[in-house]
Input
Amino acid sequence: MFNNVFDANTWAAVPFHFWSVAIFVLGCGIGSFLNVCIYRMPIGESIVWPPSHCPNCQYHIPWYLNIPLLTWVALRGKCANCAQPISFRYFAVELLTGIVFLGVWLAYGRHTPGAALCYCVLLAGFIVASFIDFEHYIIPDEITLGGAAVGFILSFFVPSLHHATKASLSLERSFWGILIGAGIVYFILRVAKFFLGRETWVLAPDSTVLFGENGIKLPDKEVPFEDLFYRKTDAIVLRAKSARAGERSWENVPVRLTPVKLTIGEEQFDPETVPHLEVVTSELVVPREAMGLGDVKFMAAIGAFFGWEGALFSLMFSSVVGVAVTGILYLAKPGGHSSRIPYGPYIAIAATGWLFGGKELVQWWLYR
Ligand SMILES: [Zn+2]
Output
């Protein structure tokens, strides 16, 4: 049955551009679902239940008001019930998904419709990953690890995804893509972390450092947590001569704070429940980050779909994209940006480049 679905001849029974229109409409519909993922995944809500509702008034959006693109335009970007503005992002994500699906179909649909559909799945994942990473500096495991698993499974059903005719060869290429893609980024991450991943701030002996709700207060400056924590695993580490939180106090203990966990000595706390911590110390070690573990897993997903060549291209080209985007942002608004820039969207853009010309570019460069 699957062989039929992924056979170009099956699709050729209907005019090609009938499918082009269908794929665009499908893309917009999927985009509507991606909006739900982008909004709910980072805050840990289910993506299937409850059905679409207005985040402001909880108004349950009926099916006839939940039509991609058209609804947003018809309601002029406002909730039908409470008139609260609905972000333009909803419209943009729907349109973007439609255009991306159509682009993939036009490039790959005629000869390898099966591979085209697989690429649509991957690009849908890119859109969710990019928007979430851009806002929250994380890429959910559902997208990265889930994407790697889906890519591997699809390689079995659609060997043309890896220019293979046999499933065994396709699976092998997907496997190496996952291993090499994730492996290289992990290696870079470890090396970068080793050389640049931490910095030590030396204070005057016995300085008092306050950990507040939004950041830390040193004798000479205040630093918001969002400039220190890039990933959930990032930690601020210090040795406290004394520490005090609420009624409790400690003497000469190690203190370690991550966005999700506070460790004082042997004890662990949820940082949310400790709004105020005061320590006396003379130095602290703070994290510095270029890429995170999320990028490693993200690259595994890309390797699963593209093989190792595509993963390597995506990684190398992502640095070019990164430099270009940073430059454009700087020109648009000099000095107006923090040092925090998520890396996931660059990888996603670079990997999309692999689909639209990157593959040919590399072949031309290697064999010209
Ligand atoms: Zn509403």
Notes: The chain has two domains: 2-192+293-367, 198-287. The two ends are 41 Å apart (CA to CA).
